[in-house]
Amino acid sequence: MKIVVTGTRGIPRIMGGVETHCEELFPRIAAMGHDVTVIRRSCYVTDDNRVSEYRGVKLRDIYAPRKKSLEAIVHTFLAVLEARRMKADVLHIHAVGPSIMVPLARLLGLRVVMTHHGPDYDRQKWGFLARTMLKMGERCGARHSNAVIAISHVIADILMKKYNRQSHLIFNGVNKPAISGKDDYTTSLGLERGRYVVAVGRFVKEKCFDQLIEAFTMLPPSGFKLVIAGDADHEDDFSRSLKSLAREKGVVLTGFIRGERLSQLLAGAALFVLPSSHEGLPISLLEAMSYSRDVLVSDIPANRLPELNATDFFPCGDITALSQAMARKLHDPQLSRSYDLHNYDWDHIASQTVEVYDNILKNK
After folding, report:
1. How many other CB atoms sit within 10 Å of the CB of residue 68?
2. How far apart are CA 61 and CA 68, in angstroms?
3. What is the pLDDT of residues 223-244, one digit of tens each?
4. Which residue, among 188, 193, 274, has the nearest Cα to 230 in the 3D structure?
5. Which candidate, 31, 99, 62, 61, places its Cα nearest to that of 353?
6. Is 184 left (phi over 0), alpha (psi -120 to 50) or beta?
7. Distances 94 to 2, 21, 57, 125, 252 between C-alpha atoms, Å
8. Alpha carbon distance 14, 195 (integer Å)
């Protein structure tokens, strides 16, 4: 089966939840014997990832303007034309914005699967026009795709309520970590194992890292440090002000990290915090759970995983409640927890996804 993938910025080592999802999923599908090509946005290709193949997945770079309001739609339009030229059996489009091109792909005779990673139009960074286009993308994907995948129960409910569209519920996944036991990276940051709080994500408003910093500064002196791993895709006033606030408050900023560095950071944390106001199904939370870390997350529907308990949540946007919840967690740190993560196995997710492909090809 020839599968072409778009909607993602690309793989490997490109920041973002959709990007992490694709980096884990499609090499597994390629290993099952399928011909997989991920079409990458040229503006995210660097010397660090300038390769033509990654773990059996072919990579094809197509122009995208480095402008957040244009890059997805321009790139996806060109990617759809390329998928048609390649005579793809299945075009898999990720996220609601790029899905505005689903009708074009169907008109060109392509069989299309859309994965809905979350209602991006709720993100605070978008203005009215962009939100309208994102909602239109969701509508196009829901109404015209041959099959729709939802990564969480919350998203599946959105699709059913808004469009009466039945979706395939296939979760995000997480790997079982191979913990090296090294601490050279965290030591270089001045961190002591079990004596810091960690957050991971992009520097955008909906991650609420500014609220996290404010809540952390309200804690009584305890010797704990706050570490935020991540950066901005597109530097803007918010990301610049966040970095300035972090430096002012003594927060450790690592930049975008993956692999061994992120592994060390998660393995040594006393607590993982995710204060977001918007998520699909956060891979960073699943990763923290895979490292047996104690977690504290906002009570938005996407974060309410059944594997968590009531003390793991705080009211979204309530800085005082966040600070009080962190204080309770850090008063008696729980340095190891056990979570049942069998629902988030990437190998199973790959098999489920290929089954979706098979079904739409059988139903020609």
Report:
1. 13
2. 18
3. 999 999 999 987 899 999 999 9
4. 274
5. 31
6. alpha
7. 17, 10, 16, 19, 33
8. 29
Q: Give strand pairing partners of 228.
A: 199, 253
Give the DSSP letter of residue 344: G
Among the listed residues 86, 94, 137, the one whose alpha carbon sits nearest the alpha carbon of residue 114 = 94
Q: Please state at what angle helix 209-217 crosses helix 319-331, rounded to 10 degrees.
A: 60
Q: Quick check: 186 and 195 in contact, CB under 8 A? A: no
Give the integer Cα–Cα distance in Å for 119 and 328: 32
**Helix, strand, coil distribution of the chain in percent, nearest 5:** 45, 15, 40
| Cβ(214)–Cβ(207) below 8 Å | no
Q: Which value, to the nearest 10 degrees, does the dihedral of the CA atoms of residues 186, 278, 315, 154 take?
A: -120
Burial label for 332, CB within 10 Å (0-12, 13-18, 19+), is exposed
Helix or strand or coil: residue 90? strand
Residue 100 has pLDDT above 70, yes or no: yes
β-bridge partners, 231: none
pLDDT of residue 15: 86
**Amino acid type, 9:** R
Looking at the DSSP bridge assignments, the partners of residue 59 are 38
Task: Give me the pLDDT at residue 131, please.
Answer: 87
Minimum mean pLDDT range among 65-69, 100-104, 108-112: 65-69
At residue 146, what is the residue type?
Answer: N
Q: How confident is the model at residue 181 (pLDDT cuts 50, 70, 90)?
A: confident
Percent of the chain with pLDDT over 70: 99
Helices (H), 102-230: 102-107, 128-144, 153-163, 184-188, 209-217
Tokens standing for 68?
A: 């957040």
Residue type at 5? Answer: V
Tokens 């010397």 identify what position?
Answer: 47
280: pLDDT strictly greater than 80: yes
Q: For position 77, what pLDDT does the model report?
A: 98
What is the pLDDT at residue 23? 97
Please tell me the predicted confidence (pLDDT) of residue 364. Answer: 65
User: What does the chain come to in residues?
Assistant: 364
Share of the chain above pLDDT 90, in %: 87
